[in-house]
């Protein structure tokens, strides 16, 4: 096995992508009841794909961050280009497994779309955290976002706040798309600069 792949935890990330993809594909149409403090009138529920997407984003981020060593950034190879390619491969694996599972389980492709949106957006939040110098603690960013959204997703009128798009049971959100675009830009800057902004 290539050293760079082994260093980034290929086996654990691949297994996690398969497990999370199966969970999202098989149970993606279900809603998970969660504590809710933002409204006294209507409880909220989290689309189940948020859970496997969160787990995979944290595992992927932790393995990539854990593989970084200060001496690597002086290497001829672009470390962040390799890490970005690795992350895209894991995301693609999770997506394919989710889509196949959804077909076999007869749940349709809606769970796959939700899973891809959630996973891409949460990894993007991690990348933005990396870009701004959070290092290995950047994995906290997507977790903190999900936790905050799960509590304060709705207004007292029981409407979703636009920023809490990950709690919405449909994949169409400009805020979600914006977060993915931000992640793409962050990855591009990291590849170009080969280091965080600070």
Briefly characterize the structure.
The chain is 62% helix and 3% strand. By secondary structure, it is mainly alpha-helical. It is globular, with a radius of gyration of 17 Å.
Helix content: 55-70%
DSSP strand count: 2
Assembly classification: single chain
N-C termini distance: 33 Å
Tally of helical segments: 7
> What's the number of domains?
1
What order do the helices and strands come in, and which of them pair?
Elements: H1 3-7, H2 10-27, E1 31-33, E2 45-47, H3 50-67, H4 79-105, H5 110-131, H6 140-152, H7 174-193
Antiparallel strand pairs: 1-2
Give an account of the 3D structure.
The mean pLDDT is about 80. This protein has one domain (about 5-195). Strands 1-2 form a two-stranded antiparallel sheet. The longest helix is centred in the middle third of the chain and has 27 residues, at about 80-105. The chain has about 200 residues and is mainly alpha-helical. Helices cover about 60% and strands about 5% of the residues. The protein is built from seven helices and two strands.
Identify the notable features of this structure and list them briefly:
two-stranded antiparallel sheet, globular, mainly alpha, 198 residues, 2 strands
């Amino acid at each position: 096995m290539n050293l760079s792949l082994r260093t980034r935890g290929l086996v654990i990330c691949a297994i996690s992508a398969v497990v999370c993809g199966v969970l999202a594909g098989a149970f993606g149409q279900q809603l998970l009841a969660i504590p809710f403090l933002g409204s006294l009138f209507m409880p909220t529920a989290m689309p189940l794909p948020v859970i496997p997407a969160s787990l995979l984003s944290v595992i992927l981020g932790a393995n990539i961050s854990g593989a970084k060593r200060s001496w690597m950034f002086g290497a001829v190879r672009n470390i962040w280009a390799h890490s970005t390619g690795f992350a895209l491969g894991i995301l693609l694996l999770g997506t394919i497994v989710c889509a196949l599972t959804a077909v076999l389980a007869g749940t349709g492709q809606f769970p796959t779309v939700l899973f891809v949106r959630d996973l891409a957006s949460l990894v993007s939040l991690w990348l933005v955290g990396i870009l701004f110098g959070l290092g290995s603690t950047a994995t906290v960013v997507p977790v903190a976002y999900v936790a905050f959204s799960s509590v304060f997703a709705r207004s007292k009128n029981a409407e979703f706040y636009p920023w809490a798009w990950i709690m919405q049971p449909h994949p169409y959100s400009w805020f979600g798309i914006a977060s993915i675009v931000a992640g793409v830009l962050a990855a591009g800057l990291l590849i170009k600069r080969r280091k965080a902004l600070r």
